[in-house]
Amino acid sequence: MLEFTNRAKNVSPSLTLAITAKANQMKADGYDLISFAAGEPDFNTPQFIIDAAKQALDKGYTKYTAASGLTALKEAVCQKLKNDNGLTYSPEQIVISTGAKQCLFNALQAVAQEGDEVIIIAPYWLTYPELIKICGATPVIVETNAANGFMLSVSALKKAITDKTKAIIINTPNNPSGTLYPESVIREFAELLKEYPDIWVISDEIYEALSYDGNKHFSIACADEQIKERTILINGMSKAYAMTGWRIGYSASSTAAAKKMGAMQSHQTSNANTMAQHASIVALTKGQNFISEMRGVFESRRDALLDCFKDFKEVDCVKGGGAFYVMVNIKHLINKSYKGQKIDSALKFSQLLLENKYVAVIPCESFGAPDYVRLTYTLDIAVIKEGAKRFKDFVKEIC
Ligand SMILES: Cc1ncc(COP(=O)(O)O)c(C=O)c1O
Predict the structure, then answer these.
(1) For FRET with 233, which of 88, 308, 364, 381 sits at 20 to 30 Å CA-CA?
(2) Atom of ligand 1 nearest to the CA of 248
(3) How far apart are CA 359 and CA 394, in angstroms?
(4) Does the CB atom of residue 204 touch ligand 1 within 6 A?
(5) Residue 28 DSSP SS3
(6) β-strands 200-204, 249-252 pairing
(7) Distance, CA 343 to ligand 1 centroid (Å)?
(8) Average pLDDT over residues 282-287
(9) How far is the CA of 386 from the centre of ligand 1 (A)?
(10) What is the arithmetic mean of pLDDT over 368-387?
(11) pLDDT at residue 19 in the model
(12) 249 Cβ partners below 8 Å, 6+ apart?
């Protein structure tokens, strides 16, 4: 009999795909659709970055680069980490990959295997448990509390650590909650880690640039040298520079970890796209103004979205300090009905909202938060207001 591996069998298809596919189809069919379902900035990649890619093509940079990336890009990443985070890395500690997603894949492949446990913090990005399962390892989920903005609880984390724990993934600012961990919480976590010297930290910092309210993202690698040595810091171009389609991410780690990840990548995809790497050098060195402008726009859109729900008691929104997502608690609407149809899950809520009000949101079952839907605010404020109005009208019609 033809068989698939356990690895292939264990990976779950994305629950959100059904919603986004349907929303895309409705848009193509001409429906007046408002989508809060995106996972990327609505900004275009800035022209100076596009020009840099064109120049790279004109100069004939169309061949392979070193599998772990161009030295000049690694140097630009080191400079960024120095300037923004006060971290010192050398180019051999950087691996350039096809998006932060491949960095996460590389990192997990390097540190986790059958019999191991990897801790993730709910709500989590839906890809983490699947990548952990692809390694043959088991995801262990630590819950957080919406009442304190889904803040990381170091005591809950401690309880989840066992002899099998190989790594802990943290993600700040967080997808889907937007939660930004303050330096004090990260330092408390780092203190805990000192009791467990054999645990790796995978720190997903892809939303770093989108930190609001005057707060600055704090990387766990900054806690001290010992923690830095076992942290695999992951970041990339997608969210900060509106470059999701360019597929450039990077990791910074100990030289030993970078070698292992680079070796694995060399047999997998080889280098990340060459012209996108050239454009990324320019983005990292000249993109600061763009980032501040985009950050300001997103912050005001977040506030506008929250404002729409401020006096609407039927649902609770959890305010995040970063990224571009707001989670909305719909728990007490579950098991109620809309036009005779039972809402038995966040997925059903999202399907009915889409079909009846042409508003797309992401149900959070696969993010470890089944009582929530996620709204992305990468839309103009007028569109956000109209979408929120339709959302509220829908909720009012639920009985
Ligand atoms: C938390 C998180 N990490 C990583 C990624 C992957 O980003 P990239 O486009 O660099 O692969 C995403 C993309 O949505 C994300 O939300």
Answers:
(1) 364
(2) 10
(3) 10
(4) yes
(5) helix
(6) unpaired
(7) 30
(8) 97
(9) 28
(10) 97
(11) 86
(12) 96, 97, 98, 99, 100, 101, 102, 103, 206, 234, 235, 236, 237, 238, 272
Query: Domains along the chain?
Result: 6-44+290-396 (3.90.1150.10), 64-286 (3.40.640.10)
- Written as six digits, the tokens of 143 are 């819950």
Q: Is the CB of 99 under 6 A from ligand 1?
A: yes
Q: Whose alpha carbon is nearest atom 16 of ligand 1? A: 175
Task: Give the pLDDT band of residue 20 (cuts 50, 70, 90).
Answer: confident
CA of 251 to the centre of ligand 1 (A): 13
Query: How far apart are the CA of 207 and the centre of ligand 1, in A?
Result: 8
Residue-level pLDDT at 158: 97
Q: For residue range 57-87, what is the model confidence (pLDDT) as tens digits?
A: 999 999 999 999 999 999 999 999 999 999 9
Q: Which atom of ligand 1 is least distant from the CA of 103? A: 11
| Residue pair 363/20 in contact by the 8 Å Cβ criterion | no
Contact 326, 298 (CB under 8 A): no
pLDDT digits (tens, 9 = 90+) for 99-113: 999 999 999 999 999
Q: How remote is the CA of residue 205 from the centroid of ligand 1, in Å?
A: 9
Average pLDDT over residues 351-359: 97
